[in-house]
Amino acid sequence: MSLFGSLHDDVFLVFSRERKTLYEAVLTAIYKSFFEISAQRVRRHEILDTIYSTLQDNPELWVEEVDEDLVILDMRHSAFRGARRRGGDLNEATQKATDRKTQVYQTLLRTGWLEEFRYGIDVRVDMPYGSLLLLERLIDIKRHDRVRIGGLIHRVKMQIEECLKNPQQAAHSLGDCKESCQAFIRGMRSILGSLSMVEKNIVNQATRNDKLKLLMEDFIGELLLQDFHEMYASKTHPYRYRADIINSIETLLHDDGNMLTLAHVYVGLGYGRNVEEARSRVVEDLHHVRSTFSAIERNLQDINAARLRIEHKLGNLVRYSHLRNTDFIKRALPLVEKLSRYVDPNKQILAPVRIATPNRVVGEGQLRAPAKPRKKSGPSYANAEEISPIDQYKIELKEAHAQRIRLPIEQIVSYVFEQLPESGTLEAKDLRIESVDDYLVFIEILNVMYAPTDQNKTTAAVRRRLLLKEFRVSTDGLSSFVVDNDWVRCDNFRITTSRPKPTYGADLVAPTEKVLS
């Protein structure tokens, strides 16, 4: 039974022995020479020559290797067999390299990395599909290719918007959005993994100079100036287009015409046997993109936390590095070393010791005193604490601030009915915020959804019940899921009135004058 459906059972055997780095170098050379770009026919002697060149360039990887069995003589390269028959013209090092070359080649055949095809006397060599895909990923890990996160985010945004404008032409790019999201997640995990590796290597370094060198080369030189500069300094930060992408996906999911067009194109591309199956595939791809951008915040928090830990270690290392030259360290270091040498052979001195409690003599004077008669309580005067003018001014400012942000119910209702259309329904993203009073009214309406719903007598609950008599707040049937303007950024919601829109001067008090600041 094949591993993962396409891999040989012993495909990882070459990386589990003593000379695993030799096979890494050989496979890398074979891939770059024959399978990376060109599609030429590869013959056996070309593979053997590449293996021999790798052995010649890296002698430290294969000398003194005795852990594998040698192959039989008649399977070696014909040119070297002829040289051996002519009297052994090959020197000892060349003969060992020849033996090792053939042995490595046979091991790659036996473990499924290569396979031979015979066309008469011509022997061609190819790499199985599963092994080729595995080798590509391993070489990508070795190269540590960095994903341009900003470019991926911008590409996804443009592809989703193009599906809204022209679904017939842009449907084929919807599948690329899913692959771009997967590449984006891999890039985020690569950054987090690199930070964790740097943090682990810092702890393993013995000297201060090694730690500083590691921080400067790995963290600042590689990660900070490349990954973080691209993520935080560019105009394509993941958070920049997050709201636009999510809103575009929600609009596309609720547009039956575009969804039907995308489904028909998916059927033509072979992504479904019928329209219903293709539509399910479209919905699945869109949900995958939306879930990816909904979880961006957690990934950024993990990356930022790892970065802060490394910066904290760097700050402590620089802050306390001068203490090694102080008199205290010079005096304490010999003492600690002496104690360490003394404790190692005498570890029993660290065993807990019970200290005997000395006998205490109890006399008549240490007995409890007899109870005294209780004093009668009488009237007394409490000294009122005088409040300083500064504290009094602070109290007045707090009261004025509380009064300022607690707007009258009439003003909130006036603000809503002033912008309410004839339909009696209004979304939060359509509310105009032009002053501080408008902002405070918006916050009061937003708090209606989060205020307690029980029948207690708290201020928030009472104001909520009063406002719910005038209008109702819900999140049903929204055209957008985010409110994003110069004043506020929050989830969208819908306002529905409980009674017809009144006219000023009759049913509704005129709105108060707006205070600009």
TrEMBL record:
Source organism superkingdom: Bacteria
Q: Which Pfam families match?
A: JetA
The record's InterPro entries line, in alphabetical order, gives: JetA (IPR043773)
Q: What is this protein called?
A: Uncharacterized protein
What is the organism field in this record? Thalassospira xiamenensis
Taxonomic lineage is:
Bacteria, Pseudomonadati, Pseudomonadota, Alphaproteobacteria, Rhodospirillales
